[in-house]
Write a structure and sequence with these properties.
3 strands, 3-stranded antiparallel sheet, alpha+beta, 8 helices
Length: 216
């Protein structure tokens, strides 16, 4: 059943516009849950081939979905970023340090949030070159956080080992990233699945289609 749900979500996502570093605030809803894609990643689920979702996330402040995604990419006019405000950036940076064999000292500094500037630049460039997003609209904070947790659990538990051999996350310092093939740490154990949120997910897609003018 969960596999069928993931396939349905992938199919529903295909209709939603993709956003990247150069996208504008008007290109996505004010509030919601995002799905991140990585250029090199695809997945085969029961004979269905999709570009693979590599992270699911949301935001706390109302009207802040665009700014949350922008915080992952870094500053608009430079490669500067703040990984202290983005777990996604923190995980990407640690994996880059490991892959490029930059050193344990740099990894320690990075994880302790001294965030060396040269690593911040590498993270910004990697995300801008490789990662895009699709978003679904969920207005209420409590609902979107519950749906976020549910979706992370759902995607993490489908097709373990689904990542490609060259995926950057294979070099992550975080065992959960390596094990489940997504840039998420919380909710990957599947515990959020006990709180069924499927109807909320479908409602969010319908709301999103209306936002983009796909439904009357």
């Amino acid at each position: 059943m969960n596999r069928e749900k993931v396939v349905e979500i992938y199919n529903l996502l295909e209709r939603i516009p993709e956003i990247g570093f150069k996208s504008n605030k008007a290109d996505l809803p004010l509030n919601g849950v995002y799905f991140a894609y990585e250029a090199s990643e695809s997945v085969n689920i029961g004979g269905n081939m999709f570009r693979r979702v590599v992270r699911i996330g949301s935001h706390l402040g109302q009207g802040n979905l665009f700014n949350r995604i922008r915080s992952h990419y870094g500053q608009v006019n430079s490669l500067k970023g703040n990984s202290g405000r983005s777990v996604f950036r923190k995980l990407i940076g640690a994996a880059i340090i490991k892959r490029e064999n930059i050193g344990e000292v740099k990894l320690h500094d990075w994880l302790e949030e001294t965030t060396p500037e040269e690593i911040e630049h590498k993270v910004s460039k990697y995300l801008r070159d490789n990662v895009t997003f699709r978003c679904i609209a969920i207005e209420k904070k409590d609902e979107r956080l519950e749906v976020e947790s549910y979706l992370i659990s759902l995607f993490a538990r489908i097709e373990p080992g689904k990542q490609s051999p060259g995926w950057l996350g294979n070099d992550s310092h975080c065992p959960k990233v390596r094990a489940y093939g997504i840039w998420n740490r919380k909710d990957t154990d599947g515990s959020a699945l006990k709180n069924e949120r499927w109807s909320n997910v479908i409602s969010a897609f319908l709301r999103t289609y209306r936002y983009y003018g796909m439904l009357s």
